[in-house]
Amino acid sequence: MKKLPEKTVERLSEYRRTLYQCLDEGKTKIYSHELADLHNITAVQVRRDIMFIGYSTRQRKGYDVEELINVISKIIDTREEMNVAVIGLGNLGKAISTYFIGKRAKLNLVATFDLDPKKIGSKTGEVECYSIDRLREIVVSKNISIAILTVPTYSAKDAVKALVQTGIKGILNFTTVNLNVPKDIYLEEYDMITSLEKVAYFVKHIK
Description:
Blueprint: H1 6-24, E1 29-30, H2 32-39, H3 43-52, E2 63-64, H4 65-76, E3 82-87, H5 91-100, E4 107-114, E5 123-124, E6 127-131, H6 135-141, E7 144-149, H7 156-166, E8 170-173, E9 186-189, H8 192-203
Parallel strand pairs: 3-4, 3-7, 4-6, 7-8, 8-9
Antiparallel strand pairs: 1-2, 5-6
């Protein structure tokens, strides 16, 4: 299968999360319009995304929830497990680390990093915090492919420079700094302030 568009991958991940919730509620079948309503999109978009990955309903009885989860997982999950590190163990980094552990079988949080001597050596669950000075060593020894960046704004560019030198393959940037990375590194940027301002903009237009 060809590489999917970014937005399609995002929606498939969101569908799967919803489908897991359906299973927990005892729901075994779901129609495209139901899934669409849960994600505030059109049923046409849902059907297009699901047809994109080669899955279709049988006799118009809706999608088999468990079967669709498996199909989506085969498409968007990696065959081999990937190791992840959080860079910056402040409030946000700590919260993300705590939330992330155990959420996905193929994505393992194996290390966190910080400059603060009081945090170095501490653990989030079983995940140890290392000095940022050991970044390259630990990334290589633990075969870390993805970094979640939660450092203060003023140190974001230096942190990315260090990550690039380790051979990291993907970065999820939670800072408000727009970053530049080589073409062989996939960068996803998430700005919570921008998202909140977007919500506020639309809220003020609600009558």
